[in-house]
Amino acid sequence: MFTLIFGVCLWQMSDQELVEAAKATLVANDRGEWSPPTSITLYPHQWLWDSFFYAIGQRHYDIERAKTAVRSAFRAQWKNGLVPHIIFSEASDYHAGPDLWQTSRRSRHAPRHVETTGVTQPPVAAEATVRIGEMLKKKERRLWYEEMYPKILAWHQMLYRERNPREDGLVHLVLSWESGMDNAPPLMEVLHKHAMSNRVRIMQLTGLDKWAELRRRDTSDVPAHERISTLDLHAIYDLIRSLRHHNYDHQKILAHHPFQVIDLPFNCILMRANEHLKTIASEIGEKLPDDIVHAMRVAPHSLETLWDDATGFYYSRDAISGELIKIPSVSTFLPLYATQLPKERIRFLLKHLHDPKKFGTKFPVPTTPVESMHFKPHCYWQGPTWININWLFIDGLRRNGHHQEAERLKHATIRLVRKSAKKHGFHEYYSPLDGSVAGAPNFGWTAALTLDLLKTT
Ligand code: DGY
Questions:
Q1: How many angstroms separate the alpha carbon of residue 378 from the centre of ligand 1?
Q2: Which residues contact 296 (CB under 8 A, 6 or more apart)?
Q3: What is the pTM of this model?
Q4: How far apart are CA 190 and CA 318, in angstroms?
Q5: To which H or E segment does residue 172 belong?
Q6: Each residue of 371-391: pLDDT tens digit?
Q7: Do 226 and 378 contact (CB within 8 A), yes or no?
Q8: Which of 31, 103, 218, 388 is exposed most, by the fewest CB atoms within 10 A?
Q9: What pLDDT, on the 0 to 100 scale, is given for residue 286?
Q10: Torsion of CA 394, 398, 399, 401, to 10 degrees
Q11: How far is the CA of 200 from the centre of ligand 1 (A)?
Q12: What is the pairing mode between strands 307-308 and 313-314?
């Protein structure tokens, strides 16, 4: 027994070593004002929600650097309030770069000083802003909140003004990349149903996708079976061309674009972000505008329309057919992050969490239940465990009063990262079955959020 424990200690990092290694990863990825998600060329630009997760980790050792991470994500905010999901750097070796998006040429709202994509990503800015604020003295916090409030507010207002045609507090996404869970099975279901362009169908029929696979840039960094499929990726490229064709005008996009989803995780994050915005507003003596107050009032009721009694899951909605996308995924847990759920709902969710056929794996929480036909343990958002999703879930469990569950998941998450940190560092995602690493190495948000979990109680 002693030899076993001693052996484990030798090849696994202690908490302190893990903290130091996480910091070292964040520092090594740092480009001064922003950080790419990983050290390798797979993602060579500034990604939006990555920046906020970075900040949540960076605040533990350099609060000014954490502020810069949040600020820099807004340096390319569009005139209509949209905060783009990528701000392009000079790097030219990215598979969906400025030539594909052409936002500065096509949209009157896009900035001219820097190239960006024309879609957004989950609004974690308010969360990061408040987490930083909590560590500042009152006067500094007020200045920080005064700086960030108008920017975050403009973003949320854009989402409700331009992406919420039903005015029910749940916004539509127009590309799976907006959800951050790029190839999650529910999103791919909508893609396959409504958005396979003729070009992509021909590729599929003629087998040209096999040829296209050889030309992919991202799969020279990460094995193809750990990434999105070539056909799905090409369907996404064509959706970007459709957004471009509509000059990134949301009115036209909602009227004609073939991919529209009321995404459960994005909307849960937005609901929580509004609560944070309310905290920020009250600290600086601002009154939240009516549109945000309305959205906050109706969203919890609208969220309940995404619950399916028969299966006991929350789902995203296909906004084109109007139907729930009844493919269970880890998203079902995010309403806990959004709000206070009724006990009965939580009972169902915890049952799923512990069910070994669903989410009760050795290294939880898989993004897709193990019994699902879509489950692939190493493939991107189709099965692996992601540290940012666990982090949101842990926070939601705590705020819903399930402290023991939160602690259990926190320790399971740290155990998963620790298992391979000495040999492989911090990875993009992990197999929920055996904890093996997948995706990109030196992954910023894995390091940042592990650091945060270790530093907070
Ligand atoms: C990619 O390049 O695959 C990104 O995830 C898009 O956000």
A1: 16
A2: 169, 271, 274, 275, 278, 288
A3: 0.97
A4: 6
A5: strand 172-173
A6: 999 999 999 999 999 999 999
A7: yes
A8: 31
A9: 98
A10: 140
A11: 19
A12: antiparallel
